[in-house]
Amino acid sequence: GNAVSGSDTGSDTLTIDNQSPGDATWGGVSPANTQITLNWSNPGDGDLAEVMILRNTVAIADQPAEGTTYLQGNTLGTSTIQYVGAGTSTIATGLTNGQDYWFEVFSRDSNGNWAAGVATGPHQPSLVDSDAPCAAADLRVTTQTDTTITIAFVAPYEDCTGTSGNPTAYMVRYGYEAISSGNWADALVFDDAYTPSVAATATETITLTGLDSNTRYYVQVRAVDDFSNVGPVASLLGVDTDKTQSTVHAGWNIGGNENNLGATNTCSGVFGVSSCMYWVSSGVGDWSGAYSDTGPSGQVHDGYGYWLGMAGGENLTPPGDSTPTTNGSTVEVPLQKGMNLLANPHPDAVLLSSLQIVQNPGGGETVNTWENAVLAGWIYSSIYAYDGANYFQETWDSDPILCGKLHPRKGYWLKLAVDDANTYAVRITNPNP
User: Fold this and answer.
1) Is the pLDDT score of 113 beyond 60?
2) What are residue 253's DSSP bridge partners?
């Protein structure tokens, strides 16, 4: 055959790209009700073609194959292809609340190279509920004793805009003044996680224990749902615990009357005991003075404290024919320098913060609150009761919940610290209007 020969002087460049693009970077991931919003930033590669996001209910082990493209909605291994495109956000919908989900984002360049991928998870969609329960309805007192109060109310629905569901808990608080949403944080906590015992619309009952006898309390309840939304306070509820007889120890006890007895009552008639001693300070020193029978004019007086000789087991009870002090009435007890005995002459506990210390009563007098009298150096801040076995301290505090009190039928030592030519007295006003 014929010989063939020739030459070619042209050339071309063949570029082989097998370098993967950079990874995308996750941004905010926001779970919501049956869905999760995903945000990310794409890499800065100039030949970026798209990103793909996989979704799974376990940590993702699936990887895309080099040179292969995928369609959104299909599967890759055990993972669902959540997204394919060049965007930077997507919303995974139709998810199950409370289920864990993992996501992994892969970037692909125009030559089919896939990045290693970056995972995030687990993320859990959940119902977002901002609707608080309603207020407890018909809040009322069913029973009370000297140390307990039982309240009842109609249990609300957990969502005030709906008609289903039960509260997860009740917050139960109490105090010595009316409780509103404004002073809720200042109230005493009985139980902030009380577990409901009945379903919504049924009657719930709760018993508060460990209270002081013969004391006015205010009680409030707020319902809490499973998203920690707290309902409003209920209607105002105030209640007095019952009076209690003060059982005393054998021996000497400090007591006082709680009624308007005047000056014609004997020790045995008031306290039911035959031994009754009143301390009279000499006005010279702290413990300078002497005991006398019953007090001025040999009679028991309102507001005076007495040492009572008791066989033990008796109760300090007012006589049946005594007349309670009237609402808002005030009893004035004179004070001498040093230690003085006083008592609460009213049937309700009296806060130290409500007492008045008077200089020169009845004649150009100066009246101080307990706090100011302490600051002025007139008195000491604490008083002391004794029940035949132990002393008990009551101390002033600006917070009425923490402030000490004069309890009915209890007597107290009070120290007048000032030493001058003025006269002094303490005024004790019935606290209940």
Assistant:
1) yes
2) 308
